[in-house]
Amino acid sequence: MQSRYKIFPPDAIHTTVQLPASKSMSNRALILNALSLSPYTIRNLSDCEDTRVIIDAFNSDSNVFDVKGAGTAMRFLTAFLAGMEGEWIIRGSKRMHERPIHPLVETLTALGAEIDYLEKDGFPPLRIKGRKLKGGEVYLSGNISSQFISALLMVAPLMENGLIMHIEKKIVSKPYIDLTMAMMAQCGVTAKWSGNDILVKPQQYQPIELVVETDWSAASYWYELVALMPGAEVKLPGLKKKSLQGDANVANLFSDLGVTTEYLEDGAIIRHAKKKAKKFFHDFVNEPDLAQTFAATCCFMGIPFIFSGIQSLKIKETDRVQALINELKKLGFVLRENGIGMLEWDGERCFPEKGPAIDTYDDHRMAMSFTPGAIPLQSLIINDPHVVTKSYPLFWDDLKKAGFTIEEEN
């Protein structure tokens, strides 16, 4: 039987939290470090599961890699291994084998890669026969995962003819592509983005000592906790106002939900404020990983919302849109998926379940975005709480330090 935590809130929150390093930056840093044959150790590397599977792959003596549930690792390593001499097999969890990878595989194949599907066409696991890629010109849809585009970008400088990417349709998660290009630039490689086209000429990466920022996505759960707890104040060392991470926008968005941000030289202090919006509207196309946090926060605060731009949530660790609808209904909130990439709560309520337990769907963000609900509900049960190791292994320890009581139930 899976474990579960019953969480009870403190009377007040005044704490300092050492957030984890950015998973997004860590995973890119590992690939760029390898491509530049760098002798340097990456500073402030994340200790999360998604990052560890890439480290394990690089340290492995085997040619078979298991990335478990790490989507970023699956995409980045597929592109990386396609250009590395040798024969490789890459697989993952059951859910990973249900997440489509054909847009990346088909594009790599067009650029000279040799990749076979070992089970179902279009999905992992994959067999890759690595070799120097020819490169060239490709067309990609912008409404697929930005990780496909980032994976291609990082290996593009090593392609014989470089890479020209024509991106069609509206780009999802553009800040993650900007992040990739910024980190490539740190390593001496320029990529030119003009209109919907990205051009990367053949170049050599320069080894440098890469430094990973503190994770703004992880900060979002503390913003939610502060929004729900009157008088709360949390210091978050290491957060940068001028960040390469798109999720740094969480500070601006939460100003509408009653949280102020004061930037310090070494981080930020966030405080509960009484001001809050009557309704919340946002297009999450640039910050899809924040959607669960805001859906839960708005419901717990009684603020109706309309979200758009969340189509990529359907192919994450779970179908996050359906998972939100299912679990918030247990708590008495009736959400609706009104069209592709849309999610709405108009304030409609239903009878909540008695003693509800939140299922986490093997998704770290489900666990962390629902946990603050223990404040208004006075207690909450989270099933399979250990999923947080994917991005924030010390989440429960940090909650205990902030005064929360966590009882383990089997």
Please describe what this structure looks like.
It contains 13 helices and 19 strands. The chain is α/β, with parallel strands linked by helices. It has two domains: 4-20 and 215-409, Alpha-beta prism (UDP-n-acetylglucosamine1-carboxyvinyl-transferase, Chain), CATH 3.65.10; 23-200, Enolpyruvate transferase domain (UDP-n-acetylglucosamine1-carboxyvinyl-transferase, Chain). Helix 3 links the parallel strand 3 and strand 4. The radius of gyration is 21 Å and the shape is globular.
Write the layout of secondary structure elements.
Layout: E1 4-8, E2 14-16, H1 23-35, H2 49-59, E3 64-66, H3 71-82, E4 86-91, H4 102-110, E5 114-117, E6 126-130, E7 136-141, H5 146-155, E8 163-168, H6 174-186, E9 192-194, E10 197-200, H7 216-228, E11 233-237, H8 250-254, E12 259-264, E13 267-272, E14 280-283, H9 291-301, E15 305-308, H10 320-330, E16 343-345, E17 357-358, H11 364-370, H12 374-377, E18 380-383, H13 395-401, E19 405-409
Parallel strand pairs: 2-11, 3-4, 7-8, 14-15, 17-18
Antiparallel strand pairs: 1-18, 1-19, 4-6, 5-6, 8-10, 9-10, 11-13, 12-13, 15-16
Helix pairs in contact: 1-2, 1-3, 1-6, 2-3, 3-5, 5-6, 7-9, 9-10, 9-11
